[in-house]
Amino acid sequence: MHYSAFEALLPSQSDVAFYRQHGWYRSKQVLSETLLAQAFSGIQRHFSGERDWHLPPTSGFSDWKPGDGDIVRTAEVVALQNAHVRQLALHPILGAIAARLTGSSMIRYFADTLVEKPGTLPDQESVVGWHTDRSYWRTCSSDNMLTIWIPFQDCTVEMGPLLYIDGSHRWSGTEDMRTFRCKDLSGLEKTFPERLPLTTIPMTLRRGEVSVHHCRLIHGSGPNTSGAPRLAFAVHLQDATNRYCVYRNERGVPWHIFLDDLAIECEDGTPNYADPAVFPLIWNERCTAQ
């Protein structure tokens, strides 16, 4: 499949330049009602406990279940467990957008994160702390990975949309910002005082639009004060250069992420981040989505 199939929907060259300077991109309306409705149906089945495919129970990924109560619902790698969500996560338009922004000829799925914020929680309960995706992906060799964020409704400021700190992907010292669950956004901001004041961009997207952010961009989200649930799906994508690499923590112990348990091994015994069963190809100039 060639870019020409989606050319009118893809980032322009000026959009690409903007993304590389600012670390984020907001798309046109690129997802159909049918695709979103089918994925929404799959998400509801997933949250009710249904699975089309079962993953090993010891892998350690987030996976909200009905017994977990009325909290922010998070679930990971849903595309590996639900057929309709998989159709959205592996849609070639997402791969084409990622390929254009990264300059990579090949894009693979890496993971996904589903987040639903009920509109009935105390304000701070639905906050997502400032963090970078790269800080959670230290076993990845690429600094060119990205995330595509997909809301399932028109997303207003009151709903607590994704917030980007403009240009923060070019900052140093953010490699360990694993603070997704920290709800004190202002407190986190005090850890980088030399960058104040911040330019914060809310992704108030319309249904069918997506936003894209660089793996090093600092992002989070505020509380959902709208009274209505806010559902969004983040698809994490890897470019052609990404491979597993050994990363050791401060005690010298090699890092391990749950995806490493799912992938087949390379000849050297390390996880294969090109395993088509776990990290399927989404975009290639010569291939369609699998």
What do you see in this structure?
The protein is of the alpha+beta class. 18% of the residues lie in helices and 21% in strands. Helix 2 crosses helix 3. It starts with 12 loop residues before the first helix and ends in a 6-residue tail after the last strand. 43% of the residues are buried.
Q: What are the key terms here?
A:
18% helix, 21% strand, globular
Helix count? 6
Instruction: Give the fraction of residues assigned to helices.
Output: 10-25%
Summarize the main sheet.
7 strands, antiparallel
Mean pLDDT, rounded to whole units? Answer: 93
Q: What structural category do the secondary elements indicate?
A: alpha+beta
N- and C-termini, Cα separation: 12 Å
Gross geometry: globular
Low-confidence stretches: none
Roughly what fraction of the amino acids lie in strands?
15-25%
Calculate Rg over CA atoms. Answer: 18 Å
